[in-house]
Design a protein that fits this description.
The chain is mainly alpha-helical. The protein has 13 helices and no strands.
Length: 306
């Protein structure tokens, strides 16, 4: 997005409860689809970084430091104004508490429960966001949105595959990760219209970088080495962070939080495809069926007129 500015409060694109023009909805769906595809590369780059000797906190620290530096450069080059006042405070809280909290609970849950179960618990977030948007943000619940949500959640379950088991603490942390991500989406949907996609992303990512740098300074984790490790960190920072978050916020300014969450379920489809192409993992018939269900959900939302 060249301008980096989201719609202003009171416009159709900036208010979840107000109808967006069909053209704006189409752009919004496309932006969130790009975001989901970018986030879908995260697991692939992370696994490459781990194979290169990196530990989770080190990988996350490098990811946010590199992304933060790129976003600051974009702010300067594009002469974007930095958010101020309550908007700035809210974005700092989203970065330091929401983003860091969600990533820590998710990665910790992965050590206590199977990856399939933790991923399934995370993908409760579209349902949570939809219910919260209806209850608290005045969004109208329509049959098309409910149908798209059911298709997306079912497709996510099929795409992720067998859930497996885990310790009770791992399950609790998995649910906490979904709830934190839901709150992050809902709160950011209220802040992005006044801040803009690029400035909001810059503040959130830079705040997360500061927090993770502090954590890394205490526990001294191992960073990935070699060319593969460096390329993985660049991919995590540029594709799975800068591109992913900026397009997510820009799309949400046009769609609202609930539809954005539903379209975001494209992410596991991209991860499965890339895992097959890059990591030579097997793709099952169930995963293919799940991908088609998620694509159907995205098409339903693309044709909806709020």
């Amino acid at each position: 997005m060249r301008s980096g500015r989201a719609s202003q409060p009171g416009t159709a694109a900036g208010s979840p409860g107000v109808a967006a023009r069909p053209a704006q909805r189409g752009v919004g769906v496309a932006l969130v689809a790009v975001s989901a595809a970018s986030f879908g590369t995260l697991a692939i780059f992370a696994r490459i970084a781990y194979r290169a000797g990196g530990e989770p906190v080190a990988v996350l620290t490098a990811r946010f430091l590199i992304a933060g530096a790129v976003l600051v450069a974009l702010m300067v080059a594009g002469r974007h104004p930095w958010p101020r006042g309550r908007t700035l405070g809210g974005l700092v809280a989203l970065g330091g508490i929401g983003y860091v909290g969600q990533s820590l609970t998710f990665f910790t849950a992965l050590t206590l429960a199977s990856a399939g179960l933790v991923s399934l618990l995370l993908y409760l977030f579209p349902a949570v966001v939809l219910v919260a948007s209806v209850l608290f943000l005045g969004e109208r619940l329509t049959p098309a949105k409910v149908a798209a949500l059911v298709l997306a959640v079912t497709g996510s379950a099929l795409t992720i595959g067998a859930a497996g088991g885990g310790r009770p603490l791992g399950i609790v942390l998995g649910v906490a990760s979904a709830l934190l991500y839901s709150g992050y989406i809902l709160l950011s949907s209220r802040l992005i219209p006044s801040a803009g996609a690029v400035p909001a992303t810059a503040v959130i990512i830079c705040t997360a970088a500061v927090v993770y740098t502090g954590i890394a300074a205490v526990i001294r984790p191992a960073f990935p080495g070699g060319a593969a490790g460096a390329l993985a960190l660049l991919g995590l920072a540029l594709v799975a962070t800068v591109l992913a978050v900026v397009t997510f916020f820009a799309g949400m300014a046009r769609l609202g939080p609930s539809d954005t969450s539903t379209v975001s379920t494209l992410e596991p489809v991209v991860t499965v495809v890339l895992a097959a192409l890059v990591l030579r993992e097997t793709v099952t018939a169930g995963q293919i069926a799940g991908g088609f269900l998620i694509l159907a959900a995205v098409l339903v939302l693309a044709r909806v007129r709020s």
